[in-house]
């Protein structure tokens, strides 16, 4: 399973980061998230990455970042094993 991000739909709202931190700590603690999201205030570019601590919410029905992404920017892909974990569609 791979988590794919569509950069055209991501607004850096950080809901995925909060959901991930809740999965790991049972509290909303963004520093403990496996996802890092930031937006450059000058040009608006968004940086988004998954850290090696991501377990894809193994004890959940689907990764919480995907489940709670209100813009539909995150999806699950079970396709090509060589596909990059996070794909930016820039």
Task: Describe the fold and architecture.
The two termini are 22 Å apart. It contains two helices and four strands; from the N terminus they run E-H-E-E-H-E. The strands form two sheets. It has a two-stranded antiparallel ribbon. Strands 2-3 form a two-stranded antiparallel sheet. The chain is an alpha+beta fold and 90 residues long. The longest helix has 11 residues. 17% of the residues lie in helices and 20% in strands. It is globular, with a radius of gyration of 13 Å.
Unreliable parts: 81-85
**How far do the termini sit from each other?**
22 Å
- Do you know the CATH topology? Alpha-Beta Plaits
Shape call = globular
Number of domains: 1
Task: Give a concise summary.
The protein is of the alpha+beta class. The protein contains two helices and four strands; from the N terminus they run E-H-E-E-H-E.
Which terms would index this structure?
90 residues, Alpha-Beta Plaits, two-stranded antiparallel sheet, 20% strand
Chart the SSEs and their pairings.
Blueprint (H helix, E strand, L loop, with lengths): L1 E4 L9 H11 L9 E5 L6 E5 L13 H4 L6 E4 L13
Antiparallel strand pairs: 1-4, 2-3
């Amino acid at each position: 399973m791979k988590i794919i991000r569509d950069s055209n739909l991501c607004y850096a709202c950080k809901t995925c980061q909060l959901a991930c931190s809740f999965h790991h700590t049972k509290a909303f603690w963004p520093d403990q998230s496996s996802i890092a999201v930031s937006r450059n205030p000058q040009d608006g570019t968004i940086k988004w990455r998954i850290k090696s601590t991501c377990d894809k919410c193994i004890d959940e029905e689907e990764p919480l970042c995907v489940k709670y992404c209100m813009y539909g920017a995150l999806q699950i892909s079970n396709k090509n094993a060589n596909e990059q974990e996070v794909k930016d569609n820039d």
